[in-house]
Amino acid sequence: VIAFFQPKLLAGKTLLITAGPTFEPIDPVRGITNLSSGKMGFAIARAAAEAGAQVTLVAGPVHLATPRGVRRIDVQTAQQMFEAVLPRATEHDVFVATAAVADWRPAQMNEHKIKKQDGTKTAPTFELAENADILAAVAALPDGPYCVGFAAESQELVKHAREKLLRKKVPLIVGNLGPATFGRDDNALVLVDAAGERELPHNDKLHLARQLVAEIATRLQQA
Ligand code: CTP
Ligand code: CA
Fold this sequence. Notes:
The protein is 26% helix and 28% strand. Helix 1 (39-50) packs across helix 5. The two termini are 27 Å apart. The chain is of the alpha/beta class.
């Protein structure tokens, strides 16, 4: 393991990463969230720290231990994640967005628990508001970091990944070759950039994270 990163590929570099889901409260006891264990993001944070980077990890609600040497900031909502990331982004060389950010939040947060309307069988309805795109906002910063996005799709992964590359104006999108990787310790990835596609075949998430960190380090040197 130690020999893997000799010399250290990200020595002297700083890396900011989002991981896990976000949770958007409806009322004090309920909310909207996404499926994400955070394991891939935490593995990348660990691999980047092993590679000599100074790592800041902005984590949504997950049950995972902080990797050794990594600075962690816990958040709950997409707005909190945005506010944790944006002011710090230009201080970093690399930004990796692995978080499964909720695209929408309830437009209003109810201060008290919503109660059933006894006997009426009428379900409440919720108006939703769109959350800001953290990755696109960081990618648009002048003198911003090298940005890496993730894409988890249920169909046409590479097509959607390439579309996100262009729409969010980031140099690299990493596709999750699931389909059902949530919570598992293994995964397979496809790297999509202007040069084409490169698959990182099925492996445990830490091994994939180390390969991805090596790929990012190579691209940083070329950037
Ligand atoms: N992302 C983000 N902030 C958001 C939404 C997404 O930073 N509000 C990031 C994710 O962390 C990921 C990338 O953007 O790195 C792609 O996320 P994804 O949900 O696949 O893209 P969307 O633009 O939200 O498109 P859609 O969900 O409709 O496919
Ligand atoms: Ca989304």
